[in-house]
């Protein structure tokens, strides 16, 4: 049976990223730190969702500095050291018991089908005791149905949370004290962060890296894992692809066209005209395909592009606003405050990574 130890995986990731970094000679080195790696405990509850359990060591293990220094140490623990079955058909033997939770800076609970929290709305005494040992200042994260375990232990009472949309009705019935929003990819409420199902666990791990170490390390980890570097927690679990297939039917060609021309004065009438539909028909089909009204979708894409420019270029804020189609710096500031709670300047300061690439505002 495979061990839960992730050192071999992390060593391979660090070697690969060091090689990749040596080939990118136009970049100035990031500021390195001599601080100990952030300790992450992944609590595997039998039966654990196999895919979910592999996400933290893989994604967080890819968060390394330019010299290959790991930013996280990820270990897997159980309620005891007995074998933990996975839904993928294999069994792991954790190297640690629940005592690891008291040492962790971040605790992650992957998806699980454990009967108590998932079927009966209750947690075992062993689970309650294990979660009670988490440090008060630790970050607590769930992936997919891992939120059931946190809720069963009372950790989500009165807090905002999400889980896999397919299990939202069960969750709401068993845990009415939790402020559940199953439409989101992930929800952060203080030290608690809950994510939707499966691949949303990748998004929440990249969010953790970005929050802890900035966008460059997060983006490099995403590139290693061959996944998009950023999907907002506020995005719907039912989302369209960022770049639609222009050869498909419906509104996808118009969305692809709009993404190429965000700097233009686009509005509902311009989008409908490009799609050769009436405004009413276009609006109905657009919302059916994306889950969003055209205006809301367009604003989301413009804010996403503005964030990218703020992270990766030295363009002045007013130039970023024009390039993203937001018009003025004041308009960009208003919408970023409403969406992210940050001004453009504060966002840039938070997510800058020590290097930038010039860009044209044209």
UniProtKB/TrEMBL annotation:
Keyword line: Transcription, Transcription regulation
CDD domains to which the protein is assigned, alphabetical: GATase1_AraC_1
Record carries keyword Transcription: yes
Gene3D superfamilies in UniProt: 3.40.50.880, Homeodomain-like
Keyword Phosphoprotein carried by entry: no
Superkingdom of this protein's organism: Bacteria
Sequence ranges assigned to domain HTH araC/xylS-type in this UniProt record: 252-350
GO MF entry, a single one: DNA-binding transcription factor activity
Name of this chain's protein: Helix-turn-helix domain-containing protein
Source organism of the structure: Nocardia bovistercoris
């Amino acid at each position: 049976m495979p061990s839960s130890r992730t050192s071999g995986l992390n060593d391979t990731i660090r070697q690969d990223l060091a090689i990749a970094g040596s080939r990118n000679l136009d970049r100035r080195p990031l500021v390195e730190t001599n601080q100990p790696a952030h300790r992450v405990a992944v609590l595997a509850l039998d039966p654990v969702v196999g895919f979910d359990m592999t996400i933290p060591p893989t994604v967080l293990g890819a968060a390394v500095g330019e010299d290959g220094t790991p930013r996280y140490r990820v270990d897997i623990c159980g309620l005891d050291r007995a074998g933990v079955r996975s839904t993928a058909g294999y069994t792991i033997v954790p190297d640690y018991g629940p005592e690891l939770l008291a040492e962790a800076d971040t605790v992650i609970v992957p998806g699980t089908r454990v009967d108590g929290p998932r079927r009966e709305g209750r947690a075992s005494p062993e689970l309650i005791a294990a979660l009670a040992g988490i440090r008060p200042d630790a970050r607590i994260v769930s992936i997919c149905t891992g939120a059931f375990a946190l809720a069963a232990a009372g950790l989500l009472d009165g807090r905002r949370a999400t889980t896999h949309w397919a299990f939202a009705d069960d969750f709401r019935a068993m845990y009415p004290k939790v402020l559940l929003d199953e439409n989101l990819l992930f929800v952060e409420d203080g030290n608690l962060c809950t994510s939707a199902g499966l691949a949303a666990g990748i998004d929440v791990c990249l969010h953790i890296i970005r929050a802890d170490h900035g966008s460059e390390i997060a983006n490099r980890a995403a590139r290693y894992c061959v996944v998009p570097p950023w999907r907002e927690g506020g995005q719907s679990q039912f989302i369209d692809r960022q770049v639609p297939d222009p050869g498909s039917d419906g509104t996808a060609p118009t969305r692809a066209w709009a993404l190429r021309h965000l700097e233009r004065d686009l509005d509902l009438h311009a989008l409908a005209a490009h799609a050769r539909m009436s405004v009413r028909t276009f609006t109905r089909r657009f919302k059916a395909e994306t889950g969003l009204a055209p205006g809301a979708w367009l604003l989301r894409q413009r804010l996403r592009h503005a964030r990218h420019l703020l992270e990766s270029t030295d363009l002045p804020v007013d130039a970023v606003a024009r390039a993203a189609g937001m018009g003025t710096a004041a308009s960009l500031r208003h919408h970023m405050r409403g969406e992210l709670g940050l001004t453009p300047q504060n966002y840039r300061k938070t997510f800058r990574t020590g290097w930038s690439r010039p860009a044209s505002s044209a």
